[in-house]
Amino acid sequence: MLASPFFVALVLGAAAAWAQTTDLLASTIADLALASRILAQQGVVDAFGHISARHPTNSSRFLLSRNLAPAQVTPADVLEYNIADASPVDPNAPNGFIERFIHSELYKKFGSGDGETQVQSVVHFHAKEVLPFSVLPERTMPFRAVNHLGSFLGASPAPNFDIASHFGPSTDMLVRSTTIGASLASLFKPTLPTARTGINSTVLPFVLMRGHGGTVVGPSIELAVFRSVYTKVTAEVLAQTAAVAGGLQAVDFMSAGECEAATATLAAQATRAFNLWGAELAGMIPDIVPT
Ligand SMILES: [Zn+2]
User: Fold this and answer.
1) Domain segments of the chain: what residues?
2) Which residues does UniProt assign to the signal peptide (predicted)?
3) Distance in Å, CA 192 to ligand 1 centroid
4) Which pLDDT score is estimated for 227?
5) How far apart are the CA of 86 and the centre of ligand 1, in A?
6) How far does the centroid of ligand 1 lie from the alpha carbon of residue 250, in Å?
7) Which one of 36, 51, 118, 275 has the minimum C-beta count within 10 Å?
């Protein structure tokens, strides 16, 4: 019996939609694996640290590699996790990162509206350049935007998550549960308030973690990588400035208005950096032949 044209169209349409979904997932996983390697090459992560992304077609899941050094992540190492409890979708999945709750709780807390738009990717790292700002008082070492490439950090000092103040003096410092992850996520404010009161509105896409490192969110994998790299660069710039000036008390930081304008400009520039870093990683930058 011949199938009706309507049935054939229905099947073909479903097949095309399925292929589109599959392609989107595959490209997101490929980008995530590349992003992981870029972060390692840029010195944001070493043997530790990780980047995740929201699942592109399933709102209850996110993507994160198995427990592996970031420089070694391939698309085959990327697993699907449930946002609800950071459990792997595949019960037979290889071991995951202890701190996957950082990611799950951020995707959970910012799961709709502008929050969801701004939290499409999460990076957690232990960069030694950033660490000093997590163990000194804010008034001594404020961590805020000082150059336009770090403008996303904003004009207010980054919050500092002190695990001891919430969970006592004897933790291993790791975000190893949904409760600790939710506590960390509560310090983020990745979007401008709906009812803005003016240019002084605060955006907090980055949070320091006392004696541990930091976590940054972004509206795309490319921007999360960009922000991670320039969080580290900002730390280096601030440290050098402090060394020259004998502290950060008199530093001319960026204003809230400058931060907002520069962040908007840079949103369209992150792909250029991502493509460059990816090409460098692949050894695809041709040598310049002297003439
Ligand atoms: Zn960590």
Assistant:
1) 16-191+202-281
2) 1-19
3) 27
4) 97
5) 16
6) 32
7) 275
